[in-house]
Design goal:
Length: 866
């Protein structure tokens, strides 16, 4: 590419005067300097403004220091830009700079073509053929054995062309490393805070800093020999019509770097595994749809459910009601809470284990193939954040490198940590306070809705749907809770970044891990607390008629709410649907608004002829861009695992969302974002440990355990007939206090009705243990605890078995890794021997020695080699 472009430009220059050379730009859609030889590794843009003189001084010093580092610069005048006000500074890193910093950063480069064959294709390959991509897209470069680059051993590596030896992703990574550490103060000054491109961007000295895409995404590069990787990514990966195709992970890694590559590898694997969970959840839902339990028949039966009078659900405003009024909600609850729910929850426990274990294998393979095995240690030791170097003036000896390095004193570290922890605790407490406020709203509004609707039997039809006080309360409270979640997220995201910056983490990995833990801890409480309330607390501390429990005491008149007559599970389903769908709608709406706002001029890229102008109008991909992508998926993962019993269709909805999410993210990276600075990541980081923290709540949210206890312990011969009557306790209406009695009574209510029923297991009036828990209550509680213990042990045994059967590192990866280590030692040994021989020969030619001294030198050389 370099040779052809250089030759083409040279041919045109032969007919042009030298004075017009700088003005001659036959093709500005290029990734090279005007000479057509030097590649543009990075671009900085800036404009003149009111503070121009001060910013000009900063730019002058910064660019001078860049040139001292060996970088080559070329400026495009504002008169050549489309807006007539933006300057573009193009940066090229020559071979000497690349080699120096590749040695500093210990970047692995090839020294021998790999001779280890790839794994054989699976049988019946023709079945997977429609899902496969062309080989040159899946494997854009051959496999090599690699070794950290050393400038003093350049002849050890496979260097055929110095201009193309380091790929563009490695080149822009090296240049950004220099930009992040280059000062912009004059020599002799000691203003340590005046360092790095990040500060120059924040104070407006430069408006943007980015590497270039290799070509337009909708068209190949004009020269057939130049790279067109962006075009290939768009054609085979970013279009939605490719949703059924495999992802070109090697090409993604080559173009964007390992960190982005491993995110898409994890997202693709997670989506593949969701397919099995979605199928099982759909089967469970269909089973609930087709089955019709005896207890639901009893509830809907006019003679059984219609003759059972239930106690009021709230004070004064709520009337007495008949059980058959809950026929619809009971049927809806049965769709999600049936015998298949227990099986599905156990299946999901095993699914989570398989997902995590198989991902470890997939991750280990990627770590080897992408040269990430030793990366974490290198990053901890070498890639110290510039902010840490600037703000930490104290130095001490590093025991590993034996060099002086900056450090943060223990006292300062503890003070910063305490302030950070206090801030996180404050915001979590704020979430809890908001949830308590929403609960208070539920208690107060339930009575208001009950006074409007009056009787659950007399439902009001609104837009074709029946609304009960419980449903109206649940839906409105869930919507309010969702709005609170979004508002708190908006503010806390900025607070989390601020306190993480205040802690001054030493490395980029440490910075991301700390921010990840803070954000997920907050998001976990923010998103799941309302769901945990419905699952664990709602309906558990209600009391019974005559002795109800109140939220803030009886004076508050906020009586703890009971579950929906069909059970709490249907309310948990409502909460999940509103929060999950609302979150996705919110994210995609913001994306559309943002894209529409930044679309000006993007649909007419021919208006921006130069490659740097085309990329300049794109959105910037921030350092935390992937963080929010991971966070969105992990929150979703929590919804489909923690609350699996309430909504078996959640994995199916998540599957459809993720299929779309992969292509939307791919489209954003390929068409809407500037090319990110390539960065490495060995794995998904702290998200791995977060995914391991999985719990199950089915035993305390499902109504299946009480049913099983009734079936096998109390009514084995008659089946489920009589379960409804057994699950309801009796209370004497005459004993209900005045402040609990309804203000109005319906026509169907007869004064001769002396008792009402409520959901609980208590002895009836007149019994010697009147209104205390029956033995069946304790049997059910023991059964729930036993189910939890058995389920945990089943999952533990399965996890242990799977971990034993499926090792974390595949055997072929172990073999390839050992062979690479062996070849590295062998090749290095032979290389050092040959180099010593050449040094000895050169020494003998330039300075003839006696035969005895020559023999001594040979003996020393052989001893050193051995």
């Amino acid at each position: 590419c370099t040779t052809s472009v250089h030759g083409w430009i040279s041919g045109n220059l032969s007919n042009t005067s030298v004075s017009n050379t700088d003005k001659l730009q036959p093709n500005k859609d290029t990734v090279f300097f005007r000479d057509g030889v030097r590649r543009i590794d990075f671009v900085l843009s800036y404009v003149d403004d009111k503070d121009g003189e001060k910013k000009q001084d900063r730019r002058r010093e910064f660019e001078a220091n860049l040139e001292k580092e060996g970088l080559e610069l070329e400026t495009e005048d504002k008169s050549d830009s489309k807006d007539q006000k933006t300057y573009f500074l193009k940066i090229h890193a020559p071979w000497n700079v690349l080699a120096t910093y590749a040695d500093v950063l210990k970047i692995k480069v090839p020294f021998k073509t790999s001779d280890v064959p790839h794994s054989q294709d699976v049988p019946l390959e023709w079945l997977s053929h429609p899902f496969r991509l062309p080989e040159h897209i899946m494997r854009p470069q051959p496999d090599y054995f690699t070794y950290p680059f050393e400038k003093s051993k350049t002849d050890f590596f496979l260097i055929t062309d110095k201009d193309t030896f380091f790929p563009p992703s490695t080149r822009n990574r090296i240049v950004f490393y220099i930009l992040a550490r280059c000062p912009y103060y004059k020599e002799g000054q000691k203003e340590r805070d005046k360092t790095g491109i990040k500060r120059l961007l924040s104070n407006g000295t430069y408006t943007a800093a980015f590497p270039l895409h290799d070509c337009r995404y909708w068209k190949r590069a004009r020269n057939a020999e130049c790279e067109s990787e962006r075009y290939n990514l768009y054609k085979h990966w970013a279009r939605f019509l490719c949703f059924y195709k495999e992802q070109p992970l090697n090409l993604i890694r080559k173009y964007y770097g390992e960190k982005i590559g491993i995110y898409f590898a994890w997202l693709g694997f997670y989506t593949e595994m969701l397919f099995f969970a979605a199928v099982m959840g759909l089967i469970c839902f269909i089973y609930g749809l087709l089955s019709y339990e005896d207890n639901i028949k009893e509830i809907c039966d006019a003679d059984i459910g219609g003759s059972i009078v239930m106690c009021p659900l709230c004070d004064k405003k709520c009337p007495f009601w008949k059980l058959n009024s809950t026929c619809l909600s009971s049927w809806q609850s049965h769709l999600f809470d049936n015998e298949g729910t227990v099986f599905f929850a156990i299946f999901m426990g095993i699914w989570v284990t398989l997902f995590l274990e198989i991902w470890k294998r997939r991750q280990a393979r990627l770590e080897y193939e992408w040269d990430l095995v030793d990366f974490e240690e290198e990053q901890q030791q070498l890639q110290i954040r510039p902010e840490f170097e600037i703000r930490c003036t104290n130095k001490r000896l590093n025991k590993i490198t034996q060099e002086m390095e900056p450090y943060l004193p223990v006292t300062s570290k503890c003070a910063r940590f305490c302030l950070s922890a206090a801030t996180v605790i404050f915001w979590i407490s704020l979430i809890v306070a908001c949830i308590i406020g929403v609960i208070a709203y539920r208690l107060a509004v339930h009575a208001a809705f009950a006074s409007i609707i009056k009787d659950p039997m007399r439902k009001i039809q609104v837009v074709g749907r029946f609304i009960t006080p419980q449903l109206a309360t649940s839906v409105t409270a869930s919507c309010i809770n969702f709005v609170i979640i979004m508002i708190l997220n908006f503010f806390y995201e900025r607070v989390a970044v601020w306190i993480t910056d205040m802690e001054i983490p030493k490395t980029h990995l440490e910075y991301e891990n700390r921010l990840t833990m803070k954000m997920f801890l907050f998001q976990f409480v923010n998103y799941y607390s309302s769901c945990f309330y419905v699952a664990f607390f709602k309906g558990k501390f209600v009391g019974f008629p005559g002795d109800y429990t109140y939220m803030f005491g009886k004076r508050s008149k906020l009586r703890n709410e009971e579950c929906d007559p069909g059970g709490c599970l249907i309310e948990l389903t409502t909460q999940l649907v509103i929060v999950m769908s609302g979150k996705q709608l919110w994210v995609h709406t913001l994306l559309l608004i943002h894209l529409n706002y930044s679309r000006k001029g993007r649909h007419h890229p021919e208006n921006h002829n130069s490659r740097w102008e085309q990329d300049h109008v794109l959105q910037n991909f921030s350092q935390l861009g992937l963080f929010y992508e991971y966070l969105e998926m992990v929150v979703q993962f929590g919804f489909i695992t923690l609350f699996v019993a309430s909504f078996p269709l959640a994995p199916l909805l998540a599957l459809f969302n993720n299929i779309l999410e992969i292509r939307v993210d791919a489209w954003k990276f390929t068409t809407q974002f500037r090319r990110p600075v390539a960065s490495k990541a060995r794995n998904i980081g702290a998200w791995q440990e977060i995914l391991n923290a999985v719990a199950f709540i089915i035993a305390f949210t499902s109504d299946m355990i009480p049913r099983m206890v009734f079936l096998y312990a109390y009514n084995e011969n008659a089946g489920m007939r009589g379960y409804v009557n057994n699950s309801l306790s009796i209370y004497n209406i005459s004993q209900i206090p005045v402040y609990n009695m309804p203000e109005e009574r319906d026509d169907w209510f007869e004064n001769s009705t002396a008792t009402c029923r409520y959901r609980d297991y208590r002895y009836p009036p007149g019994h010697r243990k009147e209104y205390t828990h029956t033995m069946q209550f304790w049997h059910i509680l023991a059964a729930k605890m036993a189910f939890i213990i058995i389920m945990e042990h089943v999952v533990f045994v399965v996890k242990f078995f799977v971990a034993w059967m499926i090792p974390d590192i595949p055997s072929d990866v172990k073999a390839r890794f050992k062979r690479e280590r062996y070849l590295i030692q062998e090749y290095l040994h032979n290389y050092e021997v040959e180099r010593l021989k050449l040094q000895l020969s050169a020494s003998f030619i330039t300075e003839p020695q006696s035969e005895m001294s020559l023999m001594t030198d040979k003996h020393e050389v052989l001893s050193e080699c051995l």
